[in-house]
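User: Earlier you gave me the apo prediction for this protein. Now I'd like the version with copper (II) ion bound, so I can compare the two side by side. Same sequence as before, with the ligand SMILES added.
Assistant: Got it. Here's the input I'm using:
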Amino acid sequence: MFPFVSKEIPVKTTLMAALLIGAFTTPLLARAETPEFTIVIKDHRFEPAEIVVPAETKVKLVIDNRDATPEEFESHELRREKVIAGGSKASVWVGPLKPGTYAFFGEYHEDTAKGRLIVK
Ligand SMILES: [Cu+2]
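And here is the structure of the complex with copper (II) ion:
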């Protein structure tokens, strides 16, 4: 018997497992680094109407339109414009942004659909 072998195999296996885990988890972690925030549209209003997001970071805004009618998420300050069909979701990526307050609104219901992105 070679007692040496029985010790060496687990070490190699562990190393290989670590490498494999590393190879598979790194892209997942990289993707998870984009913070995601959901804004619901209901009764032609944004909920929440104020969202705090991190500065100097790309963030994903998921706009969940729970109204039956379409809405357009729009922001001059963020330079974004996106139509979201009734009862569906759409994603808008913003940033990296400097600290400050960025207004957005629903172009189809501007009197009620108003919100602010607070970047800190
Ligand atoms: Cu527009």
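For your comparison, keep in mind: The chain has two domains: 1-33, 36-119.
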